[in-house]
């Protein structure tokens, strides 16, 4: 059992505060790659932490102790992202211009990466959702293939396939962008 899961078992409120501090940058980076917008990523991350905390209140000590926290939190984030998309498609679009993202005091690692390589961020946004999710979980959230498979709700072979196809499509998109830019 890790120190964080020990802390959760001993004191859910205090332990969860430690979990948030430890994983907030990683989850925000993953959310930013999934959504493409800082404000949406911040909202998604906050909702995922809220959902995770609510779930943990119903878990017994043994179940908490058995968690792979990072993989579990990324799965919660991904499910919350899917729920947000599903809800948005059921509601009519709001009229008017979208609200601008509020400026952050300090950019997170994913935002720095997006600024450093906006072409990669644009190419990721053009991938089919399942491939984008698989690539982001594997290479941004740095989950292993079994954890990616669990988060996506597919078998390991399918997860590998989604990652592989996503990476191949990214290479094609980036190569065509390089050719058009020169």
Automatic annotation (TrEMBL):
Keyword Transcription regulation tagged: yes
Family, similarity comment: Belongs to the sigma-70 factor family. ECF subfamily.
UniProt cross-references to PANTHER family, sorted A to Z: RNA POLYMERASE ECF-TYPE SIGMA FACTO, RNA POLYMERASE SIGMA FACTOR HI_1459-RELATED
Domain RNA polymerase sigma-70 region residue range list: 21-90
Domain RNA polymerase sigma factor 70 region 4 type: 120-170
Taxonomic path: Bacteria, Bacillati, Actinomycetota, Actinomycetes, Pseudonocardiales
Key words of the record: DNA-binding, Sigma factor, Transcription, Transcription regulation
This protein's name: Sigma-70 family RNA polymerase sigma factor
InterPro entries assigned: RNA_pol_sigma-70-like, RNA_pol_sigma-70_dom, RNA_pol_sigma70_r2, RNA_pol_sigma70_r4_t2, RNA_pol_sigma_r2, RNA_pol_sigma_r3/r4-like, WH-like_DNA-bd_sf
Chain segments annotated as coiled-coil in the UniProt record: none
Region (Disordered): 89-110
């Amino acid at each position: 059992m890790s120190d964080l899961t020990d802390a959760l078992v001993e004191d859910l409120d205090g332990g969860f505060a430690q979990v948030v501090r430890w994983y907030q940058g990683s989850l925000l980076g993953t959310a930013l790659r999934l959504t493409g917008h800082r404000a949406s990523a911040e909202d998604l991350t906050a909702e995922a932490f809220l959902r995770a905390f609510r779930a943990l209140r119903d878990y017994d000590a043994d179940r908490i102790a058995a968690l792979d926290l990072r993989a579990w939190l990324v799965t919660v984030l991904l499910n919350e992202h899917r729920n947000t998309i599903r809800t948005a498609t059921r509601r009519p679009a709001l009229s008017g211009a979208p609200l601008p993202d509020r400026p952050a005091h300090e950019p997170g690692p994913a935002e720095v990466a997006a600024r450093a390589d906006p072409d990669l961020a644009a190419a990721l946004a053009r991938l089919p959702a399942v491939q984008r999710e698989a690539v982001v979980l594997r290479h941004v959230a740095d989950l292993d293939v079994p954890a990616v498979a669990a988060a996506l709700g597919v078998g390991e072979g399918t997860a590998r396939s989604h990652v592989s196809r996503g990476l191949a499509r990214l290479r094609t998109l980036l190569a065509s962008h390089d050719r058009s830019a020169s």
